[in-house]
Design a protein that fits this description.
By secondary structure, this protein is an alpha+beta fold. It has 15 helices and 13 strands.
C-alpha cells in the first residue's frame, strides 16, 4: 500500500479491523507495526507483549498481511521465515498448554482447599453417627464432591464383617429431583448442611437398605473387601464386567460405583461406596484421586469419634458406679446408725418393759375389782388397753433388733399355714371374716424356720383383718412355681393408697390408728433372711394381696403331706 511519497507502508490496522478506536496510539499512524506498540486498544489494554503477540497479533490479518509481504524469493529469506513461523507456532502451543495446565492446577488447588475445609469440619468432638453423616454429606453435596449417593461400611467389633452403617442420597429419580430442588432453593453452605444431623435420618429407606448389607472380611472375591485390604481406591465403571462387584451392586441397586478405603495407621476402619445412579455421569479416576486426602481425614475422624463414644459410655458407667458406691456408703452409714439405735432401743425396751408389765397388771386387776359401771373402772380399762398396746410395741421393737438367722428344719408349708389360720380363727369369726383356702397338694418338704414363718403369716393375716373392720373375705393359697413356693394372702378390705405403697415396709410407718408400723417390716426382714421376698398388689376399695415367695430347700426325705392329714380348723 503506497504512502504519500509513493513508498510502501504497513497496513492500516484500524481500517482492516474497523475497530473505530480513534483514541488508540496507532490511529492515523501507518508507519508503525501495531504489534510492537504497547497499550493499543486491540483485545484490551496493558497486556504483556508475549501474551498479546502469541494469542492475538500472530493471528491478526494485519500481521499476516505484513508476513506475506516479507516472504522474499531468496532461499535464505524463506528458511529464516519458516524457522520463525515454526518457533512462533511452537510458542503458541506451549502457551496454550501452560494456560491449560494453570487452569487444571487452579482446579486442583481449589479442590484441595475444599478438601481441607471439609476435613477440618469433621474433626471435632462429635458422636460417631454425626461424623458418619458429615462424611457422607460432604461426598454427596453439590458444594462438596457432588456424587449422587454415598454408602458407608464399617468393620464390626469382632473384626469379622464389613457392615453397612449409614447412607445419604435418594432412592430413585423422583426423590432425587425433590431433594436437589429443595437444596437449590435453600442454598445452604456445605458446613451447615454437614451439621444438620438428626436421628430421624436413620429411618430413611436408603439407610435401612444399607443396614441390611454385610460382607465377611475373609471374602476373596468382594470388591469392598479388596479395596479395604489393599488400601486402594477401586473404580467399577461397569458392574457387569466385574464379578467382584456383583454382590455390592445387587445390594445397592447400582451398575457403576467406586470404592474408597478408610484406613488409619494400618488400622482398617471401613469403606465408602459412591455412585451417580441418577445422573449416570461416569466417575473419573482423577476425581477419585483428588478425594483420597479427604478419606484419610475421614478415617481419622471416624476412629476418633468411635473412641470418644466408647469413652463417653465408660464415663457413664463410671458415674453410675460412683453413684452406687456413694449410695452404698450412705446405706452402710445409715445401717450403722440404725444398729446403734437398735441396741439403744433394745436396752430401753428391756428397762421399760418390766415396770410396764407391773402397771398393766395393776390396771387389769383394778378392772376386775372395780364395779363395771363406775368411772374408775372405765379409766382403769383405758390404762390396761394402752399398756397392752405399748407392750406389743415393745415386743415388736425387740423383734426388729434380734438376730433373724433362720433355724431350718424339714417342714410342710401347708401344715404351717393351717396352724396359723387356727390361731386367728376365733378373731375372724367375731369380725364376720370368712377364710377361703386354696392350698396346693404337691408341695415338697422344705427346710424352713417354722416359728419365723408363722410370725410372718400372723403379721400378714392381722394386716388383712385390720383392713376389713366391717367383715369380708381372706383367701390364702399356696402354689409350687419355678423352683419356689409362693403363699398368697388376699383380702377384700379398704386397700392401700398409691402414695403409701412405697412406705409400707418402712419401720413405724402405719395408716392404722392402732398399728405399730412394725408388722410388715418385721415380716419382710424375716422373709429376706430366708432368701425370699414379699410382693404386694392393692387397689383402693377392692383389697390387697401379699405374696411370700420362698426358694425350695429340699429336705433329705422327699414326701408330701396330704391335705387330709393337715391340722383341722379350730
Amino acid at each position: 500500500m503506497p504512502g504519500e511519497e509513493g513508498k510502501p507502508t504497513l497496513p492500516r490496522c484500524w481500517e482492516v479491523k474497523q475497530c473505530g478506536a480513534t483514541e488508540c496510539p496507532l490511529y492515523e499512524n501507518p508507519g508503525v507495526a501495531c504489534w510492537l506498540v504497547d497499550n493499543t486498544f486491540c483485545e484490551g489494554k496493558n497486556r504483556p507483549f508475549e501474551n498479546r503477540f502469541l494469542m492475538t497479533c500472530s493471528r491478526c490479518p494485519v500481521y499476516l498481511e505484513v508476513r506475506k509481504r516479507a516472504d522474499g524469493r531468496r532461499i535464505a529469506d524463506k528458511a529464516i521465515l519458516a524457522t520463525f513461523d515454526r518457533m512462533l507456532n511452537n510458542l503458541y502451543s506451549y502457551h496454550i498448554s501452560i494456560k491449560e495446565t494453570n487452569r487444571v492446577l487452579g482446579q486442583k488447588i481449589a479442590r484441595l482447599r475444599s478438601v481441607q475445609e471439609i476435613s477440618e469440619a469433621i474433626l471435632g468432638p462429635y458422636k460417631l453417627e454425626q461424623v458418619l453423616y458429615m462424611v457422607l454429606t460432604a461426598l454427596t453435596a453439590g458444594e462438596g464432591f457432588g456424587f449422587n449417593r454415598a454408602f458407608l461400611f464399617l468393620v464390626n467389633n469382632t473384626g469379622e464383617f464389613l457392615t453397612g452403617k449409614m447412607a445419604v442420597g435418594p432412592c430413585d429419580h423422583e426423590e432425587a429431583m425433590r431433594i436437589w430442588g429443595r437444596f437449590s432453593k435453600e442454598k445452604r453452605p456445605l458446613k451447615e448442611l454437614m451439621r444438620t444431623w438428626d436421628k430421624t435420618r436413620l429411618e430413611s429407606k436408603i439407610n435401612k437398605t444399607v443396614n441390611l448389607i454385610s460382607f465377611p472380611l475373609n471374602s476373596q472375591d468382594n470388591v469392598l473387601v479388596q479395596s479395604l485390604m489393599e488400601n486402594r481406591i477401586i473404580n467399577v465403571p461397569d458392574v457387569s464386567s466385574d464379578k467382584r462387584a456383583w454382590p455390592v451392586a445387587e445390594g445397592l441397586k447400582t451398575d457403576a460405583f467406586a470404592v474408597l478405603p478408610l484406613v488409619k495407621d494400618q488400622r482398617r476402619i471401613g469403606v465408602v461406596v459412591v455412585d451417580n445412579f441418577v445422573t449416570r455421569v461416569p466417575i473419573a479416576d482423577e476425581d477419585l484421586e483428588s478425594i483420597a486426602p479427604f478419606t484419610s481425614f475421614a478415617a481419622i475422624a471416624i476412629h476418633t469419634a468411635a473412641l470418644n463414644d466408647q469413652l463417653r459410655s465408660q464415663l457413664k458407667d463410671l458415674d453410675k458406679a460412683h453413684k452406687r458406691l456413694r449410695s452404698q456408703r450412705q446405706i452402710i452409714a445409715r445401717s450403722q446408725q440404725l444398729a446403734q439405735m437398735g441396741r439403744l432401743s433394745a436396752d430401753l425396751a428391756h428397762e421399760i418393759r418390766n415396770p410396764m408389765t407391773l402397771i398393766g397388771g395393776f390396771a387389769r386387776l383394778l378392772v376386775q375389782k372395780l364395779p363395771a359401771t363406775g368411772e374408775l373402772h372405765d379409766k382403769a380399762q383405758i390404762i390396761a388397753d394402752e399398756v397392752s398396746r405399748l407392750e406389743q410395741l415393745l415386743n415388736d421393737a425387740l423383734k426388729m433388733t434380734r438376730d433373724e438367722t433362720p433355724r431350718y428344719e424339714p417342714e410342710n408349708i401347708n401344715f404351717i399355714i393351717m396352724e396359723t389360720l387356727n390361731l386367728i380363727a376365733s378373731e375372724c369369726e367375731e369380725k364376720s371374716i370368712r377364710v377361703v383356702k386354696n392350698l396346693a397338694d404337691d408341695l415338697p418338704l422344705m427346710l424352713l424356720d417354722r416359728q419365723k414363718l408363722k410370725e410372718v403369716l400372723i403379721n400378714l393375716l392381722q394386716n388383712a383383718i385390720q383392713s376389713m373392720p366391717d367383715g369380708g373375705t381372706i383367701t390364702v393359697s399356696s402354689v409350687h412355681q419355678d423352683g419356689n413356693v409362693q403363699i398368697a394372702i388376699s383380702d377384700t378390705g379398704i386397700g392401700i393408697k398409691e402414695s403409701e405403697k412405697e412406705f409400707i415396709f418402712n419401720p413405724f410407718y402405719t395408716s392404722s390408728p392402732g398399728g405399730t408400723g412394725l408388722g410388715l417390716p418385721l415380716a419382710n426382714r424375716i422373709v429376706e433372711a430366708m432368701s425370699g421376698n414379699i410382693s404386694m398388689e392393692s387397689k383402693v376399695g377392692q383389697g390387697s394381696t401379699f405374696r411370700v415367695t420362698l426358694p425350695i430347700r429340699k429336705a433329705e426325705t422327699e414326701k408330701v403331706t396330704p391335705l387330709a392329714n393337715l391340722p383341722r380348723e379350730a
